[in-house]
Design goal:
By secondary structure, this protein is α+β, with helices and mostly antiparallel strands. It is built from three helices and eleven strands, in the order E-H-E-E-H-E-E-E-E-E-E-E-E-H. The radius of gyration is 18 Å and the shape is elongated. The protein starts with a strand and ends with a helix.
C-alpha cells in the first residue's frame, strides 16, 4: 500500500476536521488508497502555523499522535499548482489501529497486512514529552486505555526511554490505576512519571 508522511496537525485535521486537500511535491494517479503517517516530531509553532493557514484548531502539539500511521484516504483528484507542487483532493478518511513507523519522504510502500481497521485498539488519550531529570530520562509517552475490569473507567500506561512502567493491574502489568475520567488518568500518569 502506498503511504505518505505529513505533519501531525495535518494528519489530525484529515481525520477529525474534514480537511480534504494535501499539497505534495509528487504527482499521483487518481482513485488510489493512501495510508497517512503523522510525522514523529511536532512543535507548538507547527500547530500555531497550521491554525494561521487553515483556521483549524488542533489539540496541543504534545497530544497529537506522532510517528504513527493513523488512517487511510482515497485520492480522487490531483492538480498541478506550479512546476513542483500538486494538490491532492482526498476523500473517505478511515481511521485504523494506529501503529508506529519511521516514515520517509515522498511516496513509499508499507505492507497491506499491517493495516488493521479495528480502531478499538487505539488509546483514548495520549501525551508525550521529554524528561531530563531524575532516574528515568528520555522521550516519554503516556497513553490512556479503557480499564480492563471496570466499565466506563480508565487506566494509564507509561513508556519512557524505550521502556515501560510495569507493576500495574494484575494480568495487565503495564496498565495503572482506575479512574472515572480519562483526563484524570492522564494527569495522574504524568504526575507518577515525574515523582522522584
Amino acid at each position: 500500500m502506498k503511504a505518505i508522511t505529513v505533519k501531525a496537525p495535518l494528519s489530525w485535521a484529515i481525520f477529525n476536521a474534514n480537511f480534504t486537500v494535501i499539497r505534495r511535491y509528487e504527482s499521483i494517479g487518481f482513485l488510489k488508497q493512501v495510508a497517512i503517517h503523522a510525522s514523529k516530531q511536532c512543535t507548538r509553532s507547527d500547530c500555531e502555523n497550521f491554525f494561521r493557514m487553515t483556521g483549524i484548531k488542533t489539540p496541543p502539539h504534545n497530544r497529537l499522535p506522532l510517528g504513527q500511521v493513523v488512517g487511510l484516504v482515497d485520492v480522487i483528484d490531483s492538480q498541478q499548482v506550479d512546476a513542483n507542487r500538486w494538490d491532492w483532493k482526498i476523500a473517505n478518511p478511515r481511521s485504523i489501529n494506529r501503529f508506529h513507523h519511521k516514515g520517509q519522504l515522498g511516496i513509499y510502500e508499507i505492507p497491506d497486512d499491517w493495516i488493521d481497521h479495528d480502531c478499538s485498539k487505539n488509546c483514548i488519550l495520549e501525551e508525550c514529552g521529554y524528561k531530563s531529570s531524575c532516574n528515568s530520562r528520555g522521550q516519554w509517552r503516556i497513553t490512556v486505555w479503557p480499564h480492563p475490569n471496570t466499565a466506563n473507567h480508565y487506566s494509564f500506561a507509561v513508556g519512557i526511554g524505550g521502556g515501560v512502567m510495569s507493576g500495574g493491574i494484575p494480568g495487565h502489568d503495564t496498565l495503572h490505576g482506575c479512574y472515572s475520567d480519562p483526563e484524570k488518568a492522564l494527569q495522574v500518569g504524568i504526575k507518577e512519571l515525574y515523582q522522584p
